[in-house]
Design a protein that fits this description.
This protein has 256 residues and is of the alpha/beta class. The protein contains seven helices and seven strands, in the order E-H-E-H-E-H-E-H-E-H-E-H-H-E. The longest helix is centred in the middle third of the chain and has 22 residues. Bound molecules: nicotinamide-adenine-dinucleotide.
Length: 256
């Protein structure tokens, strides 16, 4: 029988807000394979819910980390370093844009809205990776979450499409830079899934229906399908893959 044994591995997973978070779907699969899980969450508003979730995976530790503030990132990594001097896996599953910037016209995006969306959704990958790399002396692997709006114009995604385009380019740039340190960096481009963030996109329910009608598999993907691909890309099963953006979208992106 083929098994994935991650019992000696430690994974830092960012971006869990609730049980629908894609970060949680990945954490569940990593834990199922035996990995020790460390979660970070954005702030007080989600702390209680994340604590409850963390209790479902024995041994899971949680730390606050607001990626819009360097002090918060530094404090989080100081604590993480004390509990786990070494990391094997890192999951970036964080995005944010002002609601006004996820409806209406992209051309109306304000400077502040642009800065905020790219700071939290894209720059945070660099800021966090910079702290993670010294904790991966034996190599490791990283995964972030993107959407097809990085590569195609999608109604209402607006500035979030720009942020995801940056994230996908950063995947290649980081993979190039970190390859010599035996650190792989990949990205999952997920199909639409009902999460807290997705509900902020105008017309989201219509997008789910559209995918059902167009995707070769004739359905939407599940949270678990993102989780298992996260596990695959992070683990040695994907040891030859880096700098890649892998679509998990029931084949939607292949169809005109
Ligand atoms: P989610 O709302 O559960 O996750 C987004 C996370 O970002 C939340 O945990 C939130 O707390 C966190 N976050 C926002 N601002 C932050 C900050 N300043 N500091 C730290 N964390 C912050 O929604 P999700 O759909 O699971 O989103 C996870 C990732 O998946 C995002 O990058 C999103 O763009 C991407 N994605 C989602 C879908 C989808 O349809 N749900 C599709 C493709 C890609």
């Amino acid at each position: 029988m083929y098994t994935i044994d991650l019992s000696e591995k430690t994974a830092l997973v960012t971006g869990v807000a609730n049980k629908r978070s894609l970060a949680w779907a990945i954490a569940l699969e990593l834990a199922e394979a035996g990995a020790r899980i460390i979660l970070t969450y954005a702030g007080e508003r989600v702390r209680e819910g994340v604590e409850e979730l963390a209790a479902e995976i024995p041994g899971t530790e949680i730390f606050e980390c607001d990626v819009s503030r360097d002090e918060s990132i530094d404090q989080a990594f100081e604590k993480i370093g004390k509990t786990a001097p070494q990391l094997d896996y890192f999951v970036h599953s964080i995005a944010f844009a002002q609601r006004d910037d996820l409806e209406g016209k992209f051309i109306d995006t304000s400077r502040d809205g642009f800065r905020l969306a790219l700071d939290i959704s894209s720059y945070s990958m660099v800021a966090l990776a910079r702290r993670v790399v010294p904790m991966m002396p034996a190599g490791g692997s990283m995964v972030s979450l993107s959407y097809i709006a990085a590569q195609r114009a999608v109604p209402n995604y607006n500035v979030m499409g720009t942020a995801k385009a940056a994230l996908e380019q950063m995947t290649r740039q980081l993979a190039f830079e970190l390859g010599p340190e035996n650190i792989r960096v990949n990205c999952i481009s997920a199909g639409p899934l009902n999460t807290l963030s997705a509900r902020g996109i105008a017309g989201f329910t219509g997008i789910l229906k559209h995918y059902e009608g167009r995707a070769p598999l004739g359905r939407n993907i599940s949270h678990k399908e993102v989780g298992t691909v996260g596990l695959f890309l992070l683990s040695d099963l994907a040891s030859g893959i880096t700098g890649e953006t892998l679509f998990v979208d029931a084949g939607y992106h292949t169809v005109l």
